[in-house]
Fold this sequence. Notes:
This protein is α/β, with parallel strands linked by helices. The chain has 15 helices and 13 strands. The protein has helices at 3-12, 15-27, 39-55, 97-104, 147-154, 171-177, 211-221, 260-275, 291-306, 325-336, 339-352, 358-381, 404-409, 415-420, 447-460, and strands at 34-37, 66-70, 108-113, 133-134, 137-141, 160-165, 180-183, 203-208, 246-250, 279-283, 384-388, 424-428, 437-441. An 11-stranded mixed sheet has the order 1-3-2-6-8-7-12-13-11-9-10, sandwiched between helices. A two-stranded antiparallel sheet has the order 4-5. Helix 1 (3-12) packs across helix 2 (15-27). The two termini are 17 Å apart. Bound molecules: glutamine.
Amino acid sequence: xxxxxxxxxxxxxxxxxxxxxxxxxxxxxxxxxxxxxxxxxxxxxxxxxxxxxxxxxxxxxxxxxxxxxxxxxxxxxxxxxxxxxxxxxxxxxxxxxxxxxxxxxxxxxxxxxxxxxxxxxxxxxxxxxxxxxxxxxxxxxxxxxxxxxxxxxxxxxxxxxxxxxxxxxxxxxxxxxxxxxxxxxxxxxxxxxxxxxxxxxxxxxxxxxxxxxxxxxxxxxxxxxxxxxxxxxxxxxxxxxxxxxxxxxxxxxxxxxxxxxxxxxxxxxxxxxxxxxxxxxxxxxxxxxxxxxxxxxxxxxxxxxxxxxxxxxxxxxxxxxxxxxxxxxxxxxxxxxxxxxxxxxxxxxxxxxxxxxxxxxxxxxxxxxxxxxxxxxxxxxxxxxxxxxxxxxxxxxxxxxxxxxxxxxxxxxxxxxxxxxxxxxxxxxxxxxxxxxxxxxxxxxxxxxxxxxxxxxxxxxx
Length: 462
Ligand code: GLN
């Protein structure tokens, strides 16, 4: 059900009935998309919305519409664990700004979605509470780190879910689960009340059935917030500035190493665009070959800093046999973090250490600037840059868990928009088998042009 269809259902029955039905679907979920259901608070809020609707007062543009939030966003009425044992008992004293804005518009959060612990990963297999399976094939992963959010939309539990994207965590699971996943321009949505991963690329965005629904959610959650100084004016209320004619297909993203299924489906869409009169040209951007390496230096560096605060004093696992403060910290962190969290903390501290800072972090920061320049230039020549979202379809559960490098390779097409702060969206293609996502990248701040073109792809994919 789309948001519009949900609103019709609410007008024909009530917010309470629609929310209760969503909660029942959430309880019946067999893919382990959810970590906790927010039943009590959701039902109370639905009744309040119904009162308002009955009285004819303004209940908000999303009045009574149920949604699900990734469990790294602070919410009332549930725990917020970030899928880590370190936050197992944590109950948030305030809500994330994005959640507050959705509630002010009448939307109702009914559950918290599974993720890779602290959003580190691309398969939801790094969750301390077990993986989410793919709704299209339960032997495969849902993608990650917002795997639970993508699966809950694909399963039609709710019309939309919120995810976070640091290097692909909205777009990759959207591609694997066959839903729309939007990573807005960096700074579009307040990060206040989100468990930080890498502060220079973290951004909240929606997972939906349609591009139009992604825009509806962004209209509500985006815009400046005094509690997050990196926020910008809402780009979703600005007019689209580019009438897309010329499309640049990133050559490096359709070369060897990309699954045939992905290539075939993406190429088919490119042919459709050509037949519709678009100028579709290959563009080679050799600097992209360094994007993944840059990402896996910059992001672990920021992760190491952001995760330094988890000391086990106020919440989290606390080992019993501690004798001194130092071992409280080390034993807590050893017991609470998942192996992937530890790997990133180690890499991050290594690349920031005095002996290696120049060789790794400083170099990566320079290449990041170069990448931004090259992509900005390409977006002067082409109205949009396009390609696959992920080089593969959803892989098998357990297939890559012993091999972090092959896991990281799934991120090679998503990290560039993250490092450069550009808006990017994954739109599902019409496929015979497992879902494949088509990625569109636009200029920073020109999110609405990306959405307009994404609607073209959506229309052509049927
Ligand atoms: N898969 C990527 C990673 O592991 C992206 C994570 C994210 O965007 N949160 O870092």
